[in-house]
């Protein structure tokens, strides 16, 4: 048994009071605890941003990598030792901007990691610039005349890349979110859990009030997450009273590591003291 | 040249199989007990252009190419035009007489050379496919220089086995060799060519490229995770590792970019898996931020960087040594790193192995810096001796150690030797964050000024765990010489070759090959340079990057320089010429 307490540590959390990252941290801990995972076998991997600090606030192993790269680093951890539970976390800028390539590649690769995106629709740590998920017209410090581009739609992107687990949660709905993360961890393959995360300091549009008012749980509707086309339709929904949260789509597929049978017993634990290279030299005689 | 001494070039458009010509002859000569060196010269394209393969074989060790050849094999007119002047007196040109216009090439400047037209295309077509043309050429060469036919057949069998429908292919190739051979025997009965090769087989040798030697060194060192993005001239390392992934239980990932590659290594190495990538300068430019993460998080792994002609795309399939400064300084901030520049296939193997041990010992990333010339040139050497190779993992913690730990093990503990214990995920009592951010001993981030200084100094101290003897420069030649050549990397072969010529002329030269550059063997280099009567530094770049570094670290300015930056390896003749000029 792993209690939430086992996952706490003494580090002082440096997020703003009321930040939507707190419930996400709690949800991750709850998921680990409810799944009974041993914290020594869990690695939480982040990038840089407010979101990037997460590994320091949870008493597992962790990697705080560089901006945009948590998914690549998490892939390395996981493939070297698939016995570990690997949870990547990152911001919207981190994952859908500078790190977008890694995100799409990891989805199509179906690497068995859970990717929790703290999507606050803003670059928070750098003090309020536009993000790839900012809606068109959003005024920020870097877009004083309003964002010109269309936002990235992470759900649709993941679905288009043949994602096998595509979900969205909301910081204001802890129980639901913890459930999604738990499911994501148990899913064999790449699990995207995009989380609508209010940033109380820099984002005055996607606030707790707005998101509480306008999100609805798919699980409470007739929707079934078993049809990619229907999931696409849901992915395109956004608006007043019309922001779906929950599991959009799930499908069973072999993960990347399933297709590397020789790396099943973790290569990281393979003994290396006496490797015979004679067979390699044969062709050079 | 004469008995058991040959230099040969095969030239033709890309796709005509000139490298196969070189490889077959080289392997046959190796089997005949000779020492062989061969190298490739090619532009960045798949069909057309001009490819050349150069080989030399002798009874003594052959270190490099020369500017001269005894035999030119040409499968197009361009190859004759470009290279006939390189022929030694009474050298021979074997060419495909079916190529239109090939007889019209004006070689009248060289009345001494022997022209040997062979209908290669026609003969190949008779065998069912133009593809055998290059093998007909091999047969012709075999007749001219008296290659051992049995050993040539063994080479063919080895080369084509394992490929689809191999028995048919091997038979067709054997016929192609025979036809080429018989054609020359019948039509040039009276020709007594000056070069003859004899079977001198005494002991076994291996013939391989620098890239293959590095790959084997890595596998011997227990490399278990490889991530790469293809880039000439490093790609064959990716191919080598991938082709052995199953047998040696290695995860080999062709990732989406070099940025992904380096960050994957930060993850994989953190689990304790020995990890490696190979790339060229452009790829490493993309890796530099992640490389710094490895420096700060103290994550050991190995980067093989094979330099090519830069900057930017430069001349992508040609050689250069212009990334030394870049590799030393790349990434923001300051942190210790290791850098070794092997100069031949043996060093590629042994130093790559050693690099894994040293990076584990001092917990920082290491660079094997090679170049296209060493990556793609093959040389014979003694089969690698692994009896003395021991895996050393430094303070990487074992499960047993961690289970016994009475309290939490601090990953970034400030220690006297600068090295902290390194637990891995899955072990109890070791939980920490491998972080890109400055941190306390337990890995939590900090801006604290005292701790910042303590961590920087700790990382710096780590390097003192490497003794100068372990990274000493290689000294070649007599202790007392009239001139000392200083160089690094692949120039080693060309300099050794030049030294043989100089010795024959009674010129007394020695050579300091600076093999390890980080940490830098300051004491030894200073000692050698202070004692030297005259010094010449040889580099394949414009600005003398090692020369600058030596001045920075020893205060000594080497006055005589030979810098080459046309993308071609320095030839031994050029070195001899320069040495005589300086003396
Ligand atoms: C290569 C690089 N470029 C820029 C930065 C500066 N930077 C730090 S965090 C960040 C954006 C953070 O936005 P997001 O990923 O959405 O995370 P949040 O802070 O909103 O959680 C940027 C641009 C950096 N650390 N590294
Ligand atoms: S700036 Fe925004 S995202 Fe960052 S800690 Fe504060 S509230 Fe949270
Ligand atoms: Mg953000």
What does this structure look like?
- In chain A, strand 5 (165-170), helix 7 (174-186) and strand 6 (191-196) form a beta-alpha-beta unit.
- Chain A has an eight-stranded mixed β-sheet, with helices on both faces.
- Chain A starts with a helix and ends with a helix.
- With 285 residues, chain A is α/β, with parallel strands linked by helices.
- In chain A, helix 2 (21-34) packs across helix 7 (174-186), helix 4 packs across helix 5 (100-109) and helix 6 (154-160) packs antiparallel against helix 9 (228-235).
- Chain A is built from ten helices and eight strands.
- Chain A has a single domain (5-282), classed as Thiamin diphosphate (ThDP)-binding fold, Pyr/PP domains (Rossmann fold, 3-Layer(aba) Sandwich).
- Chain B is α/β, with parallel strands linked by helices and 583 residues long.
- Chain B folds into four domains: 2-198, 3-Layer(aba) Sandwich (Pyruvate-ferredoxin Oxidoreductase, domain 3); 209-381, 3-Layer(aba) Sandwich (Rossmann fold), CATH 3.40.50.970; 395-466, no CATH class; 471-582, Rossmann fold (3-Layer(aba) Sandwich), CATH 3.40.50.
- Chain B has helices at residues 18-31, 77-83, 120-126, 133-145, 149-160, 166-187, 210-220, 235-243, 258-270, 281-297, 324-329, 345-362, 372-376, 399-404, 449-461, 491-504, 522-531, 545-554, 572-582; strands spanning 5-14, 35-41, 48-58, 69-74, 87-96, 114-118, 206-209, 225-228, 251-254, 275-279, 302-307, 338-340, 366-371, 378-381, 433-435, 474-476, 483-487, 509-513, 516-518, 535-539, 560-563.
- In chain B, the strands form three sheets. An eight-stranded mixed β-sheet of chain B has the order 6-5-4-1-3-2-14-7, sandwiched between helices. A seven-stranded mixed β-sheet of chain B has the order 9-8-10-11-13-12-19, sandwiched between helices.
- In chain B, helix 1 crosses helix 5, helix 4 (133-145) packs across helix 6 and helix 9 runs parallel beside helix 10.
- The relative contact order of chain B is 0.09.
- Classes of the chains: A alpha/beta (285), B alpha/beta (583).
- The interface between A and B is large, with 54 and 67 residues.
- Thiamine diphosphate is lined by residues 48-51, 67, 91-94, 118, 120, 122-126, 131 of chain A.
């Amino acid at each position: 048994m792993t209690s939430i307490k086992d996952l706490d540590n003494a580090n002082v959390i440096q997020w703003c009071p009321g930040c939507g990252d707190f419930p996400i941290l709690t949800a991750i801990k709850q998921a680990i605890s409810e799944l009974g995972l041993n914290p020594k076998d869990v690695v939480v991997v982040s990038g840089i941003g407010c979101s990037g600090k997460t590994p320091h606030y949870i008493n597992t192993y962790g990697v705080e990598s560089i901006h945009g790269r948590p998914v690549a680093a998490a892939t390395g951890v996981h493939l070297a030792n698939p016995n570990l539970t690997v949870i990547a976390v990152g911001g919207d800028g981190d994952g859908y901007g500078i790190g977008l390539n890694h995100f799409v590649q990891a989805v199509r690769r179906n690497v068995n990691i859970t990717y929790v995106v703290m999507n606050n629709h803003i670059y928070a740590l750098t003090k309020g610039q536009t993000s790839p998920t900012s809606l068109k017209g959003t005024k920020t410090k870097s877009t004083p005349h309003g964002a010109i581009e269309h936002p990235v739609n992470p759900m649709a992107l993941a679905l288009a890349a043949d994602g096998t687990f595509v979900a969205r949660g909301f910081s204001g709905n802890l129980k639901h979110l913890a459930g999604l993360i738990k499911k994501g961890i148990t899913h064999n393959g790449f699990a995207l859990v995009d989380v609508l995360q209010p940033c109380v300091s820099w984002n005055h549009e996607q606030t707790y009030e707005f998101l509480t008012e306008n999100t609805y749980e798919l699980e409470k509707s007739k929707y079934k997450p078993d049809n990619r086309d229907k999931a696409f339709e849901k992915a395109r929904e956004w608006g007043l009273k019309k922001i779906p949260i929950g599991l959009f789509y799930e499908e069973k597929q072999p993960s990347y590591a399933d297709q590397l049978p020789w790396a099943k017993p973790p290569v990281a634990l393979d003994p290396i003291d006496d490797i015979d290279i004679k067979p390699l030299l044969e062709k050079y005689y | 040249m004469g008995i058991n001494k040959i230099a040969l070039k095969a030239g033709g458009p890309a796709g005509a199989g000139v490298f196969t010509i070189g490889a077959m002859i080289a392997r046959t000569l190796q089997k005949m007990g000779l020492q062989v060196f061969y190298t490739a010269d090619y532009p960045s394209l798949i069909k057309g252009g001009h490819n050349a393969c150069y080989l030399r074989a002798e009874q003594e060790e052959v270190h490099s190419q020369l500017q001269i050849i005894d035999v030119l094999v040409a499968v197009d007119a361009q190859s004759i035009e470009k290279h006939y002047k390189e022929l030694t007196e009474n050298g021979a040109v074997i060419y495909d007489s079916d190529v239109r216009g090939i007889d019209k090439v004006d070689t009248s400047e060289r009345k001494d050379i022997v022209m040997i037209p062979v209908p290669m295309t026609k003969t190949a077509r008779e065998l069912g496919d133009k593809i055998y043309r290059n093998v007909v050429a091999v047969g012709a060469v075999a007749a001219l220089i008296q290659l051992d036919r049995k050993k040539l057949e063994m080479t063919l069998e080895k080369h084509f086995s394992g490929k689809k429908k191999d028995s048919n292919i091997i038979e067709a190739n054997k016929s192609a060799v025979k036809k080429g051979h018989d054609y020359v025997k019948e039509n040039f009965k009276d020709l007594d060519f000056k070069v003859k090769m004899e079977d001198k087989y005494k002991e076994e040798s291996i013939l391989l490229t620098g890239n293959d030697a590095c790959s084997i060194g890595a596998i011997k060192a227990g490399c278990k995770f490889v991530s790469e993005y293809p880039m000439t001239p490093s790609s064959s390392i990716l191919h080598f590792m991938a082709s052995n992934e199953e047998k040696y239980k290695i995860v080999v990932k062709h990732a989406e970019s070099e940025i992904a590659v380096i960050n994957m290594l930060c993850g994989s190495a953190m689990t304790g898996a020995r990890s490696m990538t190979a790339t060229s300068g452009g790829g490493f430019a993309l890796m530099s931020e992640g490389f710094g993460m490895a420096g700060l998080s103290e994550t050991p792994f190995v980067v093989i960087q094979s330099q090519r002609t830069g900057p930017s795309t430069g001349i992508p399939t040609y050689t250069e040594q212009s990334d030394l400064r870049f590799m030393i300084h790349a990434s923001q901030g300051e942190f210790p790193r290791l850098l070794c520049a092997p100069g031949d296939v043996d060093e590629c193997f042994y130093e790559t192995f050693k690099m894994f041990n040293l990076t584990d010992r001092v917990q920082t990333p290491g660079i094997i810096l090679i170049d296209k010339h060493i990556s793609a040139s093959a040389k014979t050497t003694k089969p690698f001796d692994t009896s003395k190779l021991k895996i050393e993992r430094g303070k990487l913690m074992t499960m047993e150690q961690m289970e016994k730990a009475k309290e939490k093990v601090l990953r970034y503990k400030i220690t006297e030797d600068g090295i902290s214990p390194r637990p891995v995920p899955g072990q109890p009592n070791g939980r920490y964050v491998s972080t890109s951010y400055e941190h306390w001993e337990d890995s939590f981030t900090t801006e604290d000024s005292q701790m910042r200084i303590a961590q920087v100094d700790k990382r710096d101290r780590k390097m003192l765990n490497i003794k100068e003897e372990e990274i000493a420069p290689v000294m070649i030649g007599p202790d007392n010489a009239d001139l000392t050549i200083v160089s690094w990397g692949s120039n080693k072969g060309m300099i050794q070759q030049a030294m043989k010529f100089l010795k024959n002329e009674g010129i007394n030269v020695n050579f300091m090959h600076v093999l390890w550059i980080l940490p830098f063997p300051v004491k030894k280099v200073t000692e050698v340079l202070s004692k030297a009567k005259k010094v010449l530094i040889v580099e394949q770049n414009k600005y003398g990057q090692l020369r600058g570094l030596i001045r920075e670290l020893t205060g000594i300015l080497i006055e005589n320089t030979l810098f080459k930056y046309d993308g071609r390896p320095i030839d031994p003749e050029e070195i001899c010429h320069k040495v005589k000029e300086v003396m």
